[in-house]
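User: Please run a holo structure prediction.
Assistant: Happy to. Please share the sequence and the ligand.
User: Here you go; the ligand is (2S)-2-hydroxybutanedioic acid.
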Amino acid sequence: MKVVKDLDEADRLMKEEKLEKAVKKYDSILVNNALSPRAHYGKGLTLDKLGFKLQNNDFLEQAISFLGRVLDIPDAPAALVKLAGQKTAERQQFRGWSGKAIRTLKTLTEKFPDDIGLLNDLGMNFMMVNQNDRAKEVFTKVLSKNPLSGFAKAHLGFIAKINDDLETAVKMLDEGIKSNEEGTQDGRFFLQLGDSLLRLDREPEARKVYKEAEIKGLFLSANQRSLYNVKQLTGRPWWTLEQTGYQHFLKMLEDNWETIRDEGLNQLNSQTGSFIPEEENLRETGDWKQLTLYSQGRKKEENCKKTPKTCALIDQMPDAKGCRRGQVKFSVMSPGIHVWPHTGPSNCRLRTHLGLVVPEGPSIRVVDEIRTWTEGKVFVFDDSFEHEVWHKGTELRLVLIVDFWHPELTQAQKRRLSPI
Ligand code: LMR
Ligand code: MN
């Protein structure tokens, strides 16, 4: 009985945030009860809180180790094993130990084979490390145990979309979303459902899905479908140079366009392989290659060595070179291309295009206005709005893309926003 009282006392200390005292109390219990599951669990939770408070990974790692040990203690109560295991996996994931998190969840699903919540956690963990085939197996198992699981359906639909199985994606995403289950009202599912419908030539249904996501507050609007947003930034598809406040820099790009073009063309012709094919599955047809000079606010030194004058110009543009939610890149598109309607990830940037080689034939639509490029001229749009590109001509088109921080972001926001 003494142990139970001591454990209650230690738990109370933890709840009152007297963390150092709580650790001491758990330690004193463990001296004579080395296999107490509750003391391990309590000490693990307390160490986790300490780690959070002190921003200290040593405590976090100790917490993970104590929580994890509960799973190995013989005769530990099942409910506690499950709680400790879920917490262990969650903290392992947080620590960046995806493989360990997956192993913990696998152990748990073996101990509790009928627990759908654990299987769903395991499936999500597989998706986080892009092991979509494994995730698919797990979510399929969930559906075999509970054919109505909207959570599993939404995730299976998402995976089907990645695998370009559009019919399955539509069916599963639609059923998943309609289930209204926790975890299914996620912008990513609406985005992929709408995109699948568009690609299947079912545009009116796609528009409905986007509108629904707008009403639910998952998108800024049906046309502005970025998911990493700062609220209250002015959003409009096309910007005049004056509206951006960057006209001084943009003019500088225009004044130097031939230098930039020559460096871009040189790389294109040199066959050094620095242009890389677009790999986000955005194209219906045609070739699209990019040579990235800056990404997430970091200069790609290797590539800048090949186009030094262009990079020297960008280095004079702090809100472009430091734009951690954007890129600077040459973009070349072949005739015959069609890029599906799509949106960028964030409303925190504006996208400049400088026309470098512009034959007859290419055009870009942003929401409901179609424009084309002019050699030596820039235009600016907000790529968090839906845009689509075609090239119906016969020669390739080359532009320089320069992303800038949205001009309404404060310096503090620009410093703090996570890179994308
Ligand atoms: C895009 O940003 O999606 C395209 O407009 C890029 C390009 O080269 O036109
Ligand atoms: Mn785009």
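Residues 342, 344, 383, 387 surround manganese (II) ion (ligand 2) (CB under 6 Å).
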